[in-house]
Every structure is written in structure tokens, then in C-alpha cells.
Amino acid sequence: MDALLRQALTEVLRDLQNTSGPIPEVRDRPFDYDDDRATAMVYSAAGFGRGVSAYRHNTPAERLASVADQVQEWAVEALWTAARPATWPECPQHPDAHPLSAVARGGRAEWICPVSGRAVGEIGRLSARAVS
Fold first, then answer.
1. Is the pTM above the cut of 0.85?
2. What's residue 69's pLDDT?
3. In three state form, how does the secondary structure of 38-51 look?
4. Phi and psi of 62, rounded to 5°?
5. For residue 89, is the peptide bond before it cis, meaning its omega torsion is within 30 degrees of 0?
6. Does position 82 have pLDDT exceeding 60, yes or no?
7. Alpha carbons 42 and 46: distance in angstroms, whole number
8. Distance in angstroms (rounded) separating the CA atoms of residues 105 and 93
């Protein structure tokens, strides 16, 4: 797997693990052969899969936020399929309302509340305490 994609996935998987989210099986299966884009697949235990990609020309923060957004879409579907609340990562300001949003701003990749715009934590550094 491409090193830049692997690095971004490692950060997002850390957030999933630290917040009791679903953990995907990551497979190095290209689904696009664009020279500027690295790709892989993530699968749930139930077999639901989704492609994840990272553009090499993006800044590290943009790449990380983009991968986090894609994995978040997979996680919400995996949670729903498992009959768990389909909000990941949950916004601590508005419990049971909406998930956080992945954004790149100021050279950092952050999870923010989409309502207030307030940063909750850096992507890759979420903890159960941050989202509870």
C-alpha cells in the first residue's frame, strides 16, 4: 500500500479504536489507477466494503482529513449495519445529534462540530474522553 495512504489510515484507525468505533479490515486493493491517487479498500466484519483514496499532491492535513471523511462514511454504514448508533465520531457538544466533521484548516487535520465550528481534536488523536 502507498505509504501516504497507510499513514493517513493509521491515524484514522487510531481514532476508531480509541473511541470504540468499528475497526475495518484494510485491503491493499487498488480500485483506480490514477498515478496521483493511492487507493485501498476497507471492509466491515459483515463484508460491507468501501474504497478509500488519497491524492498524493494534497498537503498532509488535506490528505488526512479526506481519508478521515471517507472512513467516517464507512464507519457510519458499518455501525448502522450492526444495529449500533450510526454516529461516529459523536459530537460531544450535541450528543445523539450528529457526528463530527473532518476538516483541514491552519495546516492541521481536525475533527470539528459542524454546527459551532469548534475543534474537538486532531484527527488521529481522539480519545473516548474527547467525544463523551
1. yes
2. 98
3. EEEEEECCCCCEEE
4. -65, -40
5. yes
6. yes
7. 12
8. 20
Q: Say if residue 131's pLDDT is above 80.
A: no
Tell me how far the alpha carbon of residue 25 is from its chain's centroid: 14
Cβ neighbours for 120, distance < 8 A, ≥ 6 positions apart:
89, 91, 92, 93, 100, 110, 111, 112, 113, 126, 130, 131
Q: Is 94 exposed, middle or buried (0-12, 13-18, 19+ CB in 10 A)?
A: middle
What is residue 3's predicted lDDT score, i.e. its pLDDT? 95
Alpha helix (H) residue ranges in 1-132: 3-18, 60-81
Distance in angstroms (rounded) separating the CA atoms of residues 107 and 125: 16
d(CA 124, CA 13): 8
Taking the C-alpha atoms of residue 102 and residue 65, their distance in angstroms, rounded to an integer, is 5
CA angle 8-15-103, nearest 5°? 60
Q: Which residue has the cell 487510531?
A: 14
35: region left, alpha or beta (phi > 0 left; psi from -120 to 50 alpha): alpha
